[in-house]
Write a structure and sequence with these properties.
Layout lengths: L10 H8 L11 E8 L8 E9 L2 E7 H6 L5 E12 L1 E6 L9 H10 L2 H17 L2 E6 L8 H10 L7 E4 L4 E2 L20 E2 L2 H14 L4 E5 L1 E6 L7 E5 L3 H13 L3 E6 L2 H10 L3 E4 L5 H10 L2 E3 L2 H11 L3 H18 L2 E2 L17 H8 L4 H7 L2 H6 L17 E4 L15 E4 L2 E4 L2
Parallel strand pairs: 1-4, 5-6, 6-7, 8-9, 10-13, 13-14, 14-15, 15-16
Antiparallel strand pairs: 1-2, 2-3, 4-17, 11-12, 17-18, 18-19
Helix pairs in contact: 4-5, 6-7, 7-8, 9-11, 10-11, 12-13
Bound molecules: zinc ion.
Length: 434
């Protein structure tokens, strides 16, 4: 693994140390001379582009000669042989998890690792994500590590550790007995991978607690126990976890507090229940039927397929997990035809951060039928839209945060180029250079 450029010194700190200037120094302007730019929104790349960065934001983007005129005294970063894109965004991650292809691998982490140890690994994972070009993550629950995602987010925001911008969802929810760890030994009080929630009052209380402790998103598990219905349709079905009243209470309370809701929903029953409750995003969604895809297309609900984890766990888990791959691929292709908003999310943490680069998800999307440009948008501008951050993230445009990556080849010809980023900037700070 390549090393990061050393952690940038926080500007506020250097100002304090010198104790000379009353206001923190702004970083000098940076002019990026880009060979090509894929800006995350347009349908075609642009050649020979200047990107002027001032402080943590992009000030100007345009023809290099023109932007040079506005960039007197700026430090020039020569990326004239590279293609520059917006920082990548993964909308389904688990910083506090190190792979759980089997129940044993999951239980080992919850039973034998303290939350402190898990948070140290989470900090490492944040650095790996940034090195791979991911400048923002929606982290979809800590799997028993309580609110440690909010702590990692805070450490990154305070420039104590390198990492992406983190949108945290804290503990997630499932009813009693419907999420691991569940043991046949009723004498053991075992840790839970979620906050157990029963009844509408507890649902509202759990949302309030999680928001109070820093949740940007609310997540709940809509289903479990996946199985295929009879042919010829062979629909992927599931057992639904919450009553409709409970699920609606979660969503209503979250929305009342200004938070969006993600539902883990793999089987068609779980997807349908989550849509009845009014969630904003469907996670995994392997069991999408055409009629359910019509509902999400009409309502603008986002689908986050997490293909990388599905491919990773199919072998070790066996059983229904292998044929689920084919069901998901079929649903994915139907979703593209129907204009569903398919947004990039990997479920990294379900596979080890140290083993696979999250950007493999782009490759799967192209294999499953997206154009490379569609795949890039799903992991940049569309992901920013899911996050409600379209004014700040997901595009190379004036006013946006200067979150940028660059690759040496042409990702429109070879999408795997995104697995080999050569340059990473977040908020105007350079973390990786060619
Ligand atoms: Zn997940």
């Amino acid at each position: 693994m390549r090393r990061l450029a050393s952690l940038p010194v926080p500007l506020a700190l250097s100002a304090t140390l010198t104790a000379q200037t009353p206001t923190p120094a702004r970083p000098a302007a940076i002019l990026i001379a880009a060979g090509r730019v894929i800006d995350g929104r347009a349908d075609a790349p642009q050649a020979s582009v200047g990107i002027l960065v001032e402080g943590e934001r992009i000030r100007a983007v345009g023809a290099l000669a023109q932007v040079q005129g506005q960039a007197q005294g700026a430090r020039v970063v020569d990326l004239s042989r590279l293609t520059v894109l917006p920082g990548l965004i993964d909308t389904h991650t688990h910083l506090l998890l190190q792979g759980d292809p089997t129940a044993e691998s999951y239980e080992r982490q919850l039973l034998q690792q303290s939350t402190a140890y898990r948070a140290i690994l989470g900090a490492r994972n944040a650095r790996i994500a940034l090195e791979h070009g991911f400048t923002a993550l929606r982290d979809l629950e800590t799997e028993g590590a309580m609110y440690a995602d909010v702590d990692i987010k805070r450490a990154v925001a305070n420039a104590e550790i390198p990492g992406p911008r983190i949108f945290a969802s804290t503990r997630a929810m499932a009813p009693t007995g419907m999420y691991p760890i569940v043991s046949p030994n009723w004498e053991l009080e075992l840790p839970h991978g979620v906050q157990p929630v029963d009844g509408v009052d507890q649902a509202r209380l759990a949302v309030r607690e999680q928001v109070a402790h820093g949740a940007d998103w609310i997540k709940y598990y809509s289903d479990r126990r996946y199985y295929f219905g009879p042919p010829p349709d062979s629909v992927l079905r599931s057992w639904v976890n919450f009553t409709d009243d409970e699920a609606k209470a979660i969503v209503e309370e979250a929305h009342r507090l200004g938070r969006r809701v993600a539902a883990h929903a793999i089987g068609s029953d779980g997807i349908a229940a989550a849509l009845r409750a009014g969630v904003n995003t469907i996670e995994h969604g392997d069991g999408f039927t055409d009629s359910l895809l019509d509902v999400v297309a009409a309502r603008g609900v986002y689908w986050v397929p997490t293909v990388t984890v599905a491919q990773y766990v199919a072998g070790p888990r066996g059983g229904v997990w292998a044929p689920m791959l084919a069901a998901q691929k079929r649903a994915f292709q139907h979703a593209l035809k129907k204009g569903v908003k398919v947004v990039l999310g990997t479920d990294v943490g379900g596979f080890p951060w140290t083993e696979l680069n999250q950007a493999k998800e782009f490759e799967y999307y192209v294999q499953y039928g997206m154009t490379p440009m569609q795949a890039i948008k799903s992991g940049t501008s569309l992901a920013a839209e899911l996050l409600g951050q379209s004014d700040d993230l997901g595009a190379v445009a004036p006013g946006m945060y200067a979150d940028l990556v660059a690759v040496s080849g042409d990702p429109l010809k070879d999408i795997t180029e995104l697995q080999r980023v050569k340059f990473v900037m977040k908020g105007g700070m350079i973390y990786l250079t060619p």
